[in-house]
Specification:
about 475 residues, alpha/beta, Rossmann fold, Dihydrodipicolinate Reductase, domain 2, 2 domains, eleven-stranded mixed β-sheet, six-stranded parallel β-sheet, 13 helices, about 25% helix, about 20% strand
């Protein structure tokens, strides 16, 4: 792997840029005052990219100067939204982020690309002296998430992770309740991602549309042919580019689940199970998944359901927190043995966040811009380090899953010993597949993941070379994430 060196800048043309790993170019070094415009480039213009453009376009003191996407078809709709206003020129449009990063007048980039680009673009941005807002997950694998944190610290950059709930009040309040001990120990911190994901079918290999620089789109991923299930959304369900729903919508709920566990970073162990049920298509990631993580007194249990389903404690996407004295779900407290909700425990609080609108999060973008001005990492509601830990939990679960073996639903596995919470979760998954979706489980198999023991401080698995290999990936030449920032 190549190593980064900030002293060397990009001097090549875009024709040769694809062979260069380092995206280093010094920023102007200016100190932004309260009245100075922050010039930002938005990278990735579909899906969440539209929310980025909309937030910054309407934000006083912020100017979008670059629209960045390998697919040139994405520019037009955003140029109509932004255009030239307030005496400023319309944004430049570029396919390669490295061209934007060479601009010494660019202050920040806001990343909403596919997952496999998140960390590398963050690292390049930090190297180039830019601040960064990066969508969830902060990385495509555990190693590159840690390198992104190192880059942010080495180059003194402000890097915000796109977990908008960190700018709201509910997650922060529950974390304080858990820390207070007023409800006893937190036994299970549960996260749900129940979102219907229909079959994506099978799309044949073909030439990429002429407007897409597909080599740039691939970026760090291995070379492979184009097909219509990659652009622009279904890449989520392919291991080379996405991380399944646990690493898509699920990162938000994973973050809140970890947030509630006092002092939690990475777990002692992880095991995951599931499968892609109900149809056969081109997708690779599970549409049904359970992940179990050991944080000592607390276990974190994550549930993914991609087929039609009922809710759990009134929620389909959300969190529940199971304490010794009862359960918090949907912002309500249900004492042990009671069906009627009671007010959440009153505790002293200095929370100054939110509220964050569901599906929005403009408060989170504003928090990023405020921290860009203050130059204080502690002003960020979701610093890159927090994003790294929560994203890593999703990756650890997927590693366990990918290293698993096919086992029958019946008889039920005894792999979890006397862990009643896990068997209850597995029982509900089986009922969901059979009753909600008409699957016959007799003779049906699922993937039971390998139980992996972790050294949280080293961020590696203990005595498991096979698992440790999946903490990183092979990178295409010119798009390498380094072993370490140097």
């Amino acid at each position: 792997m190549s190593r980064m060196n900030r002293r060397h800048f990009l001097k090549s043309t875009l024709a040769t840029a694809a062979t260069i790993t380092i995206a280093g170019t010094k920023s102007s070094g200016k100190v932004l005052g309260a009245n100075d415009a922050i010039r930002i480039g938005v990278a990735g213009l579909n899906g969440r990219g539209s929310a980025h453009v909309g937030a910054y376009a309407n934000m006083p003191g912020v100017q979008i100067t670059y629209l960045i996407d390998p697919d040139s078809r994405t520019y037009a709709k955003h140029l109509k939204t932004i255009g030239a206003k307030d005496g400023n020129a319309a944004p430049q449009t570029v396919q390669d982020v490295r061209k934007a990063l060479q601009d010494k007048n660019l202050d920040a980039i806001s990343i909403a690309t596919p997952n496999h680009w998140h960390a590398l673009m963050t690292i390049w941005g930090c190297q180039a002296g830019k601040d960064v807002y990066v969508e969830k997950p902060s990385s495509h694998n555990v190693h590159e998430g840690r390198v992104a944190v190192e880059a942010a610290r080495k180059y003194n950059r402000i890097v915000q992770h796109g977990t908008q709930s960190r700018s709201g009040t509910e997650g922060a309040r529950i974390a304080e309740i858990a820390k207070s001990g007023k409800l006893g120990k937190l036994l299970v911190s549960r996260a749900l991602c129940y979102k219907t994901r229909n079959s994506i079918g099978v799309k044949p290999n073909s030439d990429a549309p002429k407007e897409i620089d597909f080599s740039l789109w691939l970026g760090p991923a291995v070379e492979r042919p184009f097909h219509g299930n990659l652009v622009h959304y279904n890449w989520h369900w392919f291991w080379d580019f996405g991380n399944g729903d646990i690493g898509n919508q699920g990162v938000h709920e994973m973050d809140k689940a970890r947030w509630a566990i006092p002092g939690a970073t990475l777990p002692k162990s992880v095991v995951s199970l599931g499968g892609r049920f109900g149809y056969e298509d081109q997708g690779e990631t599970p549409n049904s998944q359970i992940a179990v993580m050991d944080f000592g007194e607390t276990q974190l249990i994550f549930e993914v359901r991609g087929l039609k389903t009922t809710d759990y404690l009134g929620q389909k996407v959300g969190n529940s927190y199971h304490f010794e004295e009862g359960t918090i779900a949907g912002g309500k407290f249900f004492p042990k043995g009671k069906d009627q909700a009671e007010p959440l425990p009153a505790i002293p609080s200095n929370i100054k966040r939110g509220p964050v609108a569901e599906g929005g999060g403009e408060t989170h973008f504003r928090n990023f811009i405020a921290a860009v001005r203050s130059r204080k990492i502690e002003d960020l509601n979701a610093d890159i380090l927090e994003g790294h830990y929560s994203s890593a939990l999703c990756h650890l679960a997927n590693i366990s899953y990918r290293l698993g073996e096919q086992v029958p639903f019946n008889p039920q596995t005894k792999a979890f010993g006397d862990n009643k919470a896990v068997y209850e979760t597995l029982g509900r998954l089986e009922e969901h597949l059979a009753k909600d979706n008409g699957l016959k489980l007799d003779g049906q198999k699922y993937r039971l993941g390998k139980k992996l023991v972790l050294d949280p401080s080293a961020e590696t698995f203990v005595n498991d070379a096979e698992a440790n290999k999946l903490l990183t990936r092979e990178y295409r030449k010119g798009f390498e994430v380094p072993v370490k920032v140097s």
